[in-house]
């Protein structure tokens, strides 16, 4: 009985009012605590999902190459063997460079602009979809040839530039917990619902600079729920 009472009191503070209403039942009946254990498990599952999402977000923000960061993520979570990132080009796709990014790239009048839309995949997992605009005149001929004729990831092609990445925005497109969850809720919390993870999770916008601090590429990357396609999470992932 004492251990059962301790289990009930160990539940999160947002459930305090509900627990008071059924305290007597928890004291005398083991099954009475089961719904609250289940509710706590659902809360924990959402906290774990948020921790993974923010870990990936921080890792991306801390490194200049999204390709290499995703490759490490793929290896660490055993998404594919070998854990190698491949850029699947969507060659028919075309998209104009947004005006704000044109200014960031300091595009000169009449200067050609290259464009790639790619899916960065590790094995069968498409981890990211990226729109990438770049200035061919600021790359080498070999780099331009590889970008035109291969599916190599952009970051690997231009690695010899020793580029630096300046993130303009990093947006969580989805969060598993509602705003203000840490302050507590009255009644049954919204996060007690079954967890479903949508296709698009993160979006980063960035500009790449060479060693001379000249901008040469702008990218908008959308990271998908395939980054969580391991362990207990696959059954929670929504299709695109």
Which terms summarize this structure?
240 residues; alpha+beta; Chorismate lyase; 6-stranded antiparallel beta sheet; 22% strand; globular
Low-confidence parts, pLDDT < 50 over ≥5 residues?
1-37
Q: Strand count, sense and closure of the main sheet?
A: 6 strands, antiparallel
CATH topology call: Chorismate lyase
Helix share, percent = 25-40%
Protein architecture, described:
It is a single chain. The protein is α+β, with helices and mostly antiparallel strands and 240 residues long. The protein has one domain: Chorismate lyase. It is 33% helix and 22% strand. The chain is built from 8 helices and 6 strands; from the N terminus they run H-H-H-H-H-E-H-E-E-H-H-E-E-E. The protein has a 6-stranded antiparallel β-sheet. A hairpin with a 2-residue loop joins strand 2 and strand 3 (125-134). The longest helix is centred in the N-terminal third of the chain and has 29 residues, at 34-62. It is globular and about 55 Å long. Mean pLDDT is 83; it is low at 1-37.
Give a nutshell description of this structure.
This protein is of the alpha+beta class and 240 residues long. It has helices at residues 2-9, 16-21, 23-28, 34-62, 66-76, 99-105, 141-149, 154-157, and strands spanning 85-89, 114-122, 125-134, 164-172, 200-209, 215-224.
């Amino acid at each position: 009985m004492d251990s059962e009472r301790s289990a009930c009191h160990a539940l999160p503070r947002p459930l305090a009012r509900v627990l008071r209403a059924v305290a007597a039942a928890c004291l005398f009946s083991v099954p009475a605590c089961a719904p609250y254990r289940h509710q706590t498990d659902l809360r924990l599952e959402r906290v774990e999902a948020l921790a993974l999402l923010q870990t990936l977000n921080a890792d991306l923000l801390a490194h200049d190459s999204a390709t290499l960061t995703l490759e490490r993520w793929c290896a660490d979570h055993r998404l594919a063997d070998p854990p190698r990132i491949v850029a699947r080009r969507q060659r028919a796709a075309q998209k104009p460079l947004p005006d704000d990014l044109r200014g960031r790239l300091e595009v000169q009048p009449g200067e050609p602009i290259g464009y790639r839309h790619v899916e960065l995949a590790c094995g069968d997992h498409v981890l990211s979809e990226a729109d990438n605009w770049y200035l061919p005149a600021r790359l080498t001929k070999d780099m331009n040839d590889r970008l035109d004729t291969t599916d190599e990831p952009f970051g690997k092609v231009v690695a010899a530039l020793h580029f630096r990445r300046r993130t303009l925005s990093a947006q969580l497109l989805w969060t598993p917990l509602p705003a203000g969850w840490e302050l507590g809720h009255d009644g049954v919390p919204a996060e007690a619902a079954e967890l479903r993870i949508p296709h698009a999770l993160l979006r980063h916008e960035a500009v790449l600079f060479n060693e001379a601090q000249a901008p040469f590429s702008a990218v908008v990357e959308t990271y998908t729920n395939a980054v969580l396609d391991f362990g207990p999470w696959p059954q929670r992932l929504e299709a695109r």
